[in-house]
Amino acid sequence: MPSSPFAQSERYRYMNGFGSYHESEAIEGALPIGANSPQKPPYGLYAEKLSGTAFTAPRHENQQTWLYRILPSCGHSNFEPRESATYNTNPENKPYEKIHHIPNQLRWDPFDLDETVDWVHSLHLVAGAGDPTMKTGLGMYIFAAGKDMDAREAFYSADGDFLIVLQHGVLDIQTELGRIFVRPSEICVIPRGIRYRVTLPSGPVRGYILELYQGHFQLPELGPIGSNCLANARDFQAPTAAFDEDTDSEWHVLCKFAGHLFQARQRHTPFDVVAWHGLYYPYKYDLGRFNTLGSVSYDHPDPSIYTVLTAPSDHAGTAIADFVIFPPRWLVAEDTFRPPWYHRNTMSEFMGLITGQYDAKTGGGFQPAGASLHNVMSGHGPDAATHAKASNALLAPSKVGEGSMAFMFESCLMVGVTEWGLKQCRKVQQDYNAESWEPLKPLFKRPGAGVEPGNGEGKAKNGEIGDKAQVPHWTA
To answer: Which of 255, 284, 313 is the last residue of a domain?
Structure first.
């Protein structure tokens, strides 16, 4: 830190800044001066506006980008359903693919890699809430792919913004606005409607996706924290313009629309944007640059202090989606039970582990490429073994999460689990509760001989939190 030690070198150049107005041209002079849509744009290009918000959205929310391309994106055949019998990431519309709304705490074993499918066909909706046709809610996905997308194929989602959390492998993403190279411990956001193609230069990939059906991600407000810390705007990276010139080959454009897959054909590449300027573009962020805050006196603070990106609802302080991480950090709080408290939350919490070990469950049941879901008001917290160790540990300053990175998709919505997520994937741990919390024993002692009231039962014993095979890493 303050950056991740990547195994792969960066391939591309970027422009820095979150929510910044960027402009980029692959050929000097391709951007018009002053006007957005001159009668004849430079070099015979077509001007095309890409709108991520309504034209009349308030200026501070408005996200639009002007593209200057060889041919407009509208030059294609009609979209036709593709693989409609098998491909569906919005099962609410198919009565034989149920959404299960259940209060049970859920945890999944690591999801399998699948070397037989490409990016598009690796998407599995695990859980979600809302409806993309009404632009409300979100979807939570697992992806596991082993093949490049076809050489003349592009994909976009009309349903929402993709926040991609890569767990394994490397993604080389060619977008209309330029190229992005994504490695584990980096995230990538591809806004609604932007076309892209995914190749896998290091073989199979696996990870998680949060699709936001409403609004767009933004940086959380900092309030009393001040003007810096958490995720700093300067550390987000947007691609620079890069284009292909191909007006003779047949291309297939795949579209995720209301959870279904459609395809159109066209005789030109979608990746022909020579220059662009605006506020609506894909970007990536290195999680290693997150500036973590914590308590330097007592008590375990709420996990909201680890929020990287948020998508607020219409109620202040309540998010449709928060993306939260738990990076390596120091714990120094005095006279404090340092793991998270036991709690029930009005928010739904979907957690994943990118790398490392997880010590809030010392049994090792939460593993990289696995996941857990604690839905609205479902109780959770440290398992019995962790509680015992943390209650008796010497409270010297300690570094937790070294070599580890966990994250959380949090939402104010009650999250339903798909048939695939609950049954078909065959990864749900049936003994999650039995291993984690049923072994907890009552420790209450009535006042009497030898028992004095106070904060706890007296001085901590010389204990140790976590075994040597695991890296302490406490989250909610």
So the answer is: 284
